From TrEMBL:
Residues 1-21 are annotated as: Disordered. Residues 30-259 form the ABC transporter domain. GO terms for molecular function: ATP binding; ATP hydrolysis activity. Keywords: ATP-binding, Nucleotide-binding, Transport. It comes from Bifidobacterium aquikefiri. Signal peptide: none annotated. The lineage of its organism: Bacteria, Bacillati, Actinomycetota, Actinomycetes, Bifidobacteriales. Pfam families: ABC_tran. This is ABC transporter ATP-binding protein. The keyword ATP-binding applies.
Length: 283
């Protein structure tokens, strides 16, 4: 199966606008061209002919079942893994198989170093890059913005899961990446905290103009956060649909966005596509 791109302005009316047309309206921050992946020693394809783009300031989400290669795709985008074929273009420059300082990566696990204070964890990126100055005032403002002021000298095991996840996001944001990759970043959090952090994330990235590429199994999360959604099938991972999301809600608060009248139609469309892929795989 080849990639199918169906861009929508209304959940019930596919418009068939090709992704290239979108580039006329905003700068492309990230472009993935015909990426396929087969691990050495294994004949099974993990990813097949994946192509997508994310524009500057856009929130793009990937949704799909287990085994669709989302994490592998993210490792390729981050430059941590070289694909078997295809290209990764960051800010119009070839970046395949090489980490870029324009990209920040936030995982489901916060990966904070237990022997370092929260401040030291947050400033790890600038320390490792050597050529980045650590601005004390910026650090102070960041701790206030993420509601962690007063915990600078605490250690990770002294913080709740949500606070640690905030610290991990701060660590990525401090490097001021143009593109933020988030792989199931809120999956392990309880629902109220998850909603709070998602709302905060939308506030941050909409204000900063940063691009987010997000992975989730949660269709509700995808619809409420995203400007555009790519739907993947598994074995091998392929894009089977692309959908633009337009909710008639100007708020960045997740609970309010889920009350938008278009929400259920988008949800049903995505669920039917994912479910269809699962049924076909079982045949």
């Amino acid at each position: 199966m080849t990639n199918t791109s169906t861009t929508e302005t209304n959940p019930s009316q596919p418009s068939g606008v090709h992704s290239a047309a979108l580039k006329e309206h905003s700068k492309t921050a990230l472009e993935i061209l015909s990426v396929s992946m087969t691990y050495p020693g294994n004949d099974a394809e993990v990813l097949r002919d994946i192509s997508f783009h994310a524009d500057k300031g856009e929130f793009v989400t990937f949704v799909g079942p287990s085994g669709c290669g989302k994490s592998t795709l993210f490792n390729i985008v981050a430059g941590l893994l070289a694909p078997s074929s295809g290209s990764v273009i960051v800010d119009y420059k070839e970046n395949t198989g090489s980490p870029s300082d324009k990209i920040g990566y936030v995982l489901q696990k916060d990966l904070l170093l237990p022997w370092r204070t929260i401040r030291k964890n947050v400033t790890l990126g600038p320390e490792l890059s050597h050529n980045r100055h650590i601005d004390a005032q910026q650090i102070t403002e960041l701790f206030h913005a993420y509601h962690l002021h007063g915990y600078e000298d605490s250690y990770p095991d002294q913080l709740s899961g949500g606070m640690r996840q905030r610290a991990a996001l701060m660590r990525a944001m401090l490097m001021n990446p143009e593109i933020i990759l988030m792989d199931e970043a809120y999956k392990a959090l309880d629902y109220p905290l998850k909603i709070e952090l998602e709302s905060e994330l939308l506030d941050r990235v909409k204000d900063s103009g940063q691009t987010v590429v997000f992975v989730t199994h949660d269709i509700e999360e995808a619809v409420t956060l995203s400007d555009r959604i790519y739907i993947l099938k598994a074995h091998p991972g392929e894009i089977v649909d692309e959908m633009q999301i337009h909710l008639s809600c100007n708020s960045n608060k997740i609970n309010e966005r889920r009350l938008a009248p278009e929400f259920n139609e988008y949800y049903e469309r995505i669920w039917k596509t994912v479910e269809s892929g699962i049924r076909q795989e079982k045949r």
